[in-house]
Amino acid sequence: MKFLKSSSGFSYAELMIVMVLIIITSLGTTLSLIRFYRTQEPKIAVRAMAAVLRDAAQRSASQEGDKYWGVRFDNLTTGRDRYVLFSATNKTFAGYATTSVTYMGAATVFSAPAVSSTILFDKLSGNALIAGCPTVTSSTITVASTSVRVYCNGKIE
Fold first, then answer.
1. Looking at the 3D structure of the chain, how many domains does it have?
2. Where are the extended beta strands (E) located within 49-136?
3. Which residues have CB under 8 Å from 153's CB, separation 6+?
4. DSSP state of 74
5. Model confidence over 17-57: pLDDT tens digits?
6. Nearest one of 74, 68, 59 to 141, comparing CA atoms
7. Cα 156 from chain centroid?
8. Model pLDDT, residue 26
9. Domain presence at residue 34
């Protein structure tokens, strides 16, 4: 009678080597994705701010609610930085009403403005009412090394 030797299958050591390789590869991929997200976070935040600025300019130009619309950027010393979409009945912020508040990510903070800054848009024209216009050509909001610039003529880039 002949005995059959079973040599098929994997040994415990071979399975452990494969598992260790899978874990190392997964860890490397996860760390790369986290690093990528952290480099993209300021860019995403600036794009979102630019969208809110364009929204405020559009609302002012269309005279929504017969109000001036603007965005206030708060560089807070405690808590997370934020920006606020608001409306006002005149250029001196009378009748100030908050429409939305957006908080920045915990790792995303304003480089500029140093404390806070407000950009208000003119009714009908949609031009930015920046102090010093037309001598001062624009106002800049910076997150890390990424910026959004608002020009006196209402252009946002």
1. 1
2. 68-74, 82-88, 97-103, 110-112, 116-121
3. 127, 128
4. E
5. 999 999 999 999 999 999 998 888 889 989 999 999 999 99
6. 74
7. 15
8. 97
9. no
